[in-house]
Amino acid sequence: MAWILIGSFIALILLRVPISIAIGMATVLTFLTSDFSNALQIIPQQMLEGVNKASLTAVPFFIMAGNLMNVTGVTERIFAFANALVGHLKAGLAQVNILSSMIFAGISGAAVADCAGLGAIEIKAMREAGYKPDFAAAITVASSVIGPLIPPSIGLVIYAFLAQQSIERMFLAGLVPGILVGLALMIYVRLRAGFQDFPTQPRATVREVAHTAQHGFAALMAPAIILGSIMFGFVTATEAGVLACLYCIFLGVWYRELTLGKFFSALSDTAMMTAVIMIIIAFSIAMGWLLAIDQTPQKLADWTFSLTENRNVFLALLLVFIILVGCVVEGVPAKLILVPTLLPLIDAYGIDRVHFGIIIQLGLLIGIATPPMGIGLYIVAEVGRVRFEKVTLAVLPMLLPLFAVLILLTYVPQTVTFLPDLILGKQ
Amino acid sequence: ETTWRMATKMPVDSPEGQVFEKFADLTEEYTNGELKIDVYPNEQLGKEDAVLEQLQANIVQVYAEGFGYLKKWEPALAWVAAAFAFDDFDHWQRFMTSDTVSGWFDTAAEQSGVRPLGDPTQVLRGPFRVMVSNVPVETAADIEGIKIRMHENKVAIETWDHLGAEVITLPWTEVYQGISKGIVEAVNSPVALVESMRFNEVAPYITRHDEYWQSIGFMVNEEALAALDEDTRAGLLRAYEDTGAYSQEVMFGVAEESIARMEEAGATYTVLDTAPLVEKMQGFYEAMAASGELPEGFIDAIEASRTASQ
Amino acid sequence: MTPQDYHPQSPLTRALNRLDRASWSLGGAFLWLSNLCLLIMLALTAATIVLRPLGLAAYWMWPWTMVFFIWLSFFGFFALYARLKDVRVDFIAGLFGPMGMAVTRLVSDLATLSVTGVLLWQLPRVIATSRGVYDGAILPAGLELPRLALSVPLFVSAALILLTALLDLAKMAAGMPENVTDHHPEI
Ligand code: NA
Ligand code: NA
Predict the structure, then answer these.
(1) 3-state secondary structure chain B
(2) Is C104 among the domain residues?
(3) CA B189, CA B186: separation in Å to the nearest integer?
(4) CA end-to-end span of chain B, whole Å?
(5) Rounded to whole angstroms, how far apart are CA atoms B19 and B251?
(6) How far is A136 from A80, CA to CA, in rounded Å?
(7) Nearest to B212 by CA among B106, B131, B137
(8) Residue at C179 is within a domain
(9) Cα–Cα 20 to 30 A to B261, which of A37, A80, A231, B227?
(10) Which NCBIfam families match (chain A) (predicted)?
(11) Is residue C183 part of a domain?
(12) Residue B15, preceding peptide bond in cis (omega within 30° of 0)
């Protein structure tokens, strides 16, 4: 059953079927070939179940915050501040690109706002400074992986709901891994600058740093507001998303950059992105119902367990599997299918659910930088006006630091669990 | 040989999860393997409305949950857990097995083909309700003016308003923070959840008030039940009754241990005399009956079952 | 290419293009319905944050936020289909040239018809079993929103998507180009 499901979904995706229809069709096909072919009313019923999830109401607001930052000039300010800080280093603008993504990550929950909004500014600046466009686009895509690790994060909201973990805990767990990915990319760029010439910039004066910091300060405050208000329990995760949006609107008005037109364009983008995600979730939940009633997860767990009882071997197989799936299936639908299926196994091998959440999050995120479903590649190819194949090639070596962090996180669980356990107590 | 699917909301390792597991085991044993029950925990098959629709369609054969959810077929069933309407558990049990309530279950069954298995009070939930507060609550008078958290339910809000409390609605997951920040002083909860929600850390006064009684209905699809042969059905019913006894044992055992642990950690446990609350609520129910908000025969059935008919 | 960019030459293509433009506009209307739902969610949640500390937050605010979230998603289903906001992987089809694009266009339309067809086929059963109300979503008259109302936008969207896919098949038969966009949303 799982094979019909995954196989037909991938085939349909590759046949240019829109993703929401592809997952719907895969669901219908799986139902028709199961014992429940006469219970198709379950599909609309479970679609309603899928979107009727309180914890998922945070999704549109974390998307909207990123979109609002892009239309209110906050993104430019973040970039200017990062530039003043690290622009003078070797391959300075590449380092700026990474640091900007780390700052931007603190308010945006999706990688798209990074690639499309911040990415447009970064690639433009790097091209003008003399960087090769494919390199500029590639580092933009690679660093956009940081966004959905550092809280807030839509992927982690969805995982929290699937694995019955608190959103706070998942957010705290993502913070250190997100910073580690940023650092790994920075080290990679520095090493590469050792034997390859990149354009350089003069060091910013203290006054310039102070000036841009003053401008960027308001943007830097946003993550503190979001995380802080959740941690101190003033608001729920959804309300924190709303606070972030209100704060961005306030900044836009304060900077006199937010027009009604820009606001509605950010609103429409948010509504459509939310709708795509939620329709995919809706069909996936219908599919999840079928997998659950067929007890597929338990069967898979028994089968895998019969192969190996060694946890480290299992983790290695898991990593390869997640990365392969991430190449062909987007993060949200992949999680919706994989998490309920894999949880019994994760529990059976004694792997912490929070730990697993970060592994699967990063593992699938890498897929935005790999073909054929590398959505990040499509976006930067478009905003950077570079050929898709050229970005794809340029990004390949940059996957190495990402894999290195993924392996570190997988085999040293404390890098993930230390912070949430420290702040929220052990589970 | 038949396999039934049984949906529940609870995790397998919770006390209720253990009770359901026991039911599955006993059923297989008492029916000599003729009926096997697969339990689907954790809302795997969906939330209440979705599972009830699957129960109607005979995709799921048993749903173990509160009877309140049957209210969509018989609105009167929203009232089986009326607050402070009953003197004690026995009174409630007599009410639940009265002709009036049986009639409500019949109405629901006529529309949906879903009905409870056996005596609807057998499998306990909770097993009883307490108020957890950061100020002492020793008598009914202490409830006056207390800032209490309530879920978004009109009747619950009006009930506690009538009892003199100051009602503040708050999501369940926000209660811990709400108490520690002084937004609310108290919350009502099944005793089983106090420790896992860590309420006792911020509100050390635990008062058993038996706000209402709750049972877990084993709602079954009538068609599926009718399809069983007589011996198998008898075995199933016997398994249900034994599960009821087992649930009392497990639930009260767990509650006692939990209370002992919380007392050890500095909590104060009190059992409230609820007679004044029951008396106060009679006016509330009479006013509601007068305005036509209560189901037909509700108050009469409560009164008729107040004393045991010998 | 969008319906606006197409210049019909015959009565048939003119009629189809007129329908195509209507579908495009309707997609825009549904996009605005989604936007409206999102704005209401934003307003209700913002109001809750402000009013709760004052003890003024009404208990119906949260259930209604959920209702608008559900409607946002379901209205958005047609909007994202008609306005081409969904994700499509076209480079493999592109490898096979115009033939690849034509075959995958047909496959997409057929898949769309099957999915929406199944949803609409099940509508009578959904209506027959959807009972009760959405708890807490009170209406001005004191009643609560029927559970069935939650799914109505899903079925309306499914019906409109089905018609749009049929229209595209008719366009294909008449030799008209498919609606496409450069848009690449992230999910
Ligand atoms: Na970047
Ligand atoms: Na983020």
Answers:
(1) CEEEEEECCCCCCCHHHHHHHHHHHHHHHHCCCCEEEEEECCCCCCCHHHHHHHHHCCCCCEEEECHHHHHHCCHHHHHCCCCCCCCCHHHHHHHHCCHHHHHHHHHHHHHHCEEECCCCCCCECCCCEEEEECCCCCCHHHHCCCEEEECCCHHHHHHHHHCCCEEEECCHHHHHHHHHCCCCCEEEEEHHHHCCCCHHHHCCEEEECCCCCCECEEEEEHHHHHCCCHHHHHHHHHHHHHHHHHHHHHHHHHHHHHHHHHHHCCCEEEECCCHHHHHHHHHHHHHHHHCCCCCCCHHHHHHHCCCCCC
(2) yes
(3) 10
(4) 43
(5) 9
(6) 17
(7) B131
(8) no
(9) A231
(10) dctM
(11) no
(12) no
For residues A101 and A144, the answer to whether their CB atoms sit within 8 Å is yes
Token duo for residue A241: 């998303």
Q: Closest Cα partner for A114 from A97, A127, A135?
A: A97
Bridge partners (DSSP) of residue B115 are: B220
Cα–Cα distance for residue pair B46/A286, rounded to 1 Å: 10
DSSP classification of residue C62:
H
Number of domains within chain C = 1
Q: How far is the CA of A97 from the centre of ligand 1 (A)?
A: 4
Interface probe with C: pick from A272, A327, A377, A386, most Cβ of C within 10 Å: A272
Q: Residue C92 corresponds to which tokens in the numbers above?
A: 């493999």
Across the interface, which of C55, C129, C135 has its CB nearest the CB of B168?
Answer: C55
In a domain, C108, yes or no: yes
Asked if the C-beta of B156 comes within 8 angstroms of chain C's C-beta atoms, the answer is no
CB contacts of C129 in chain B (<8 Å) are 53, 56-57
A18 → chain C, closest CA residue: C88
- B116 prior amide bond cis, ω within 30: no
In 3D space, the residue among A159, A222, A161 whose CA is nearest the CA of residue A416 turns out to be A159
Nearest to B122 by CA among B163, B89, B154: B89
Tell me how long chain A is: 427
Residue holding tokens 């592994």? A359
ipTM metric: 0.87
The structure tokens 């104060």 sit at: B268
Locate A351 and state its tokens: 């792997």
Note the ligand closest to the C-alpha atom of A186: 1
Domain of C74 in residue numbering reads as 3-173
Residue-by-residue pLDDT tens, chain C, 187 positions: 789 889 999 999 999 999 999 999 999 999 999 999 999 999 999 999 888 777 777 888 989 999 999 999 999 999 999 999 887 877 788 889 999 999 999 999 999 999 999 999 999 999 998 888 898 888 888 788 999 999 999 999 999 999 999 999 999 999 999 998 765 543 3
State the residue for tokens 């937004």: B183
Scanning every residue of chain C, which has its alpha carbon at the shortest distance from the alpha carbon of B157?
C59
